[in-house]
Structure formats: C-alpha cells, structure tokens
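Today's session is about reading a structure prediction critically. Students often jump straight to the picture, but the first step is always the sequence itself: look for stretches that repeat, for charged clusters, for runs of hydrophobic residues. Only then move on to the predicted structure, which in these notes is written as discrete structure tokens rather than atom positions. Here is the chain we will use throughout the hour.
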Amino acid sequence: MPAPSPTAPGRHRAALALLLMSLIWGYNWVVMKQVVPLADPLDFSAIRTLLGALALFAAMAVLRRPMGLVAPGETLLLGLLQTGAFTLLIQWALVHGGAGKTAVLVYTMPFWLAPLAAWVLKEHIGRVQWLATAVAAGGLLLIIGPVSAGGRILGNLLAVGGGLSWALATLVAKRLRQRHQVDLLALTAWQMLFGALALVVTALLHDSRPINPTPFFFAALAFNALFATALAWLLWLYVLQHLPAAIAGLSALGIPAIGVLAGWLQLGERPSPGELGGMALIGLALALVSLHALRRPPPPAPQSLQGKAP
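Below is the predicted structure for this chain, in token form.
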C-alpha cells in the first residue's frame, strides 16, 4: 500500500525522526572506528549483531509485532549478505581506513545496485541512474587510484566490497518481497539473527586477539545494539510510514556526510585532495539519484528495510 498522506505535525515528527536516525547511523562510523584497537573486527561484528538482533526481537515483543519467519532459505541468504558479510567488511575496512572515507565508499551501494538490478531483475535503468553510476565510478577512481596519495588500498577495497554485499542483499530482499508477504521489522530481525549466528560461529573458530574490555568497548556495544540497531530501525519504520520513500531516501546523503564530518572533528581525519574530490563526486551521484527519485511517482509497495544502517 502507498504511504498515507501525513498531517503537518506528522511530517514534522517524521523529519525529526529522520534527522535523529541519520545522526545515529552517521556518527556510528566514528564509534566503530574507535573500537578497532579494542577488539578483532570479527569478534566485535559478531557480538554487535547478536545483541542488535536480540534488541530487535525485544522491540517486536513490546510493540506486539508479528514474529513469524517467512521464506527461511531466502532470509538466511539475506542475513549472510546483509548482516554477516556487510558488517564484517565495513568493520574490517575501518582497521585500514578512516571513518569518513569508509562511510562514503560503502554508500556507493546504489551504483552497484543499478547494473545488478538490470541484469538479475531485468529492471529498466534510466539515463539519470547510469549518469550517476558513471559519476560515482569517477569518484571511486579518485579515491582508490594513485591520485589519492597515502590511501590504503585494502581498506578501500573492503569498504567497496561492503557496498557490493549490501547491493546483493538488496536484490535478495527485493526478490523475497516479490514472492512473499513479510513484515519488514520481522524480516530485518530474522536476517540479522541468521547473520549474527554465522558471525558468532566463525568468531569462535577464528584465532583472534583478546578483547580489551574497556568502558568504551561496552559503551560502543550498547550504542550499536540499542541505538544504531533497535532505535534507528524503529525510527526508519516511522519515517517510511509518514514520509514518501523518495524523501526518506535522501537520508542516504546525510549519513556518510555526518561520518565524514565526525571523523574530521573527532578523529582529525584529513582527506587528501584526490580523496576529497572522489567523495564530492560520490556525493553528487547520490544527490542525482535522490533528486531523480523525488520526481518519480511513488511505488505501489513500501521500500525494503535493507537500507542504511552501518
């Protein structure tokens, strides 16, 4: 069903929810970067996602939302891509790269999604989307290529891999929702649980360095589980119910921008001229996609939740 026409107070509350969600997800890049010296990326990813999944199930119980598992095989694949691979790749990328640059590279997801959707789902990709993809590709070349002096290629590739994993997960989610009626919050919780369990098993088999259980480590876990997972996903649901999906999608612009700004102010990250130019091109490409979406008629069904969380 299309989103209902919101009242003015409802729009204002939804705008505030969108701002708070973007601040949480944008700032979380700095939180995840600061955890790097305290825990192995695999260990932190496993604990973070497991707590996040439990927080989502607790939220569903409080809200009396349906918890039924639909399409277990497809949901398992979604969890391995969206929660397992994506979370591990972005946390591993932060070991080698800055918070802001990693956030921008991960948010190249829409530009991987366009050709993949045309190939796998036979979706029509318009000229604006292809133009945006070409602009983003130029930005990637500036960040990853030799123009970006001092850049660490492994961290860049891991971040781009995170965006690609996110795009593949979005394809799986789209096909799943074409075939089955699912509650979006339940789907998000189940896929996160499956991905978290895969990370936990892998972490138990992996010989990693000991966790440094400082107060900040536990604060980062609490922030990720309660705020970046449970609260932010609930805010996203509220936004989708009260604002057009195209406007809600504009938050994709704010999240990496907040990550870049927070990395600069708190961590002292200074992008090179090549990296700064590449980030600007990727931001321009995101703006092209978002503004183009605003001019299109709303889709007949709500957007998938596989979206913006870091």
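Discussion point for the tutorial: The chain is about 75% helix and 0% strand.
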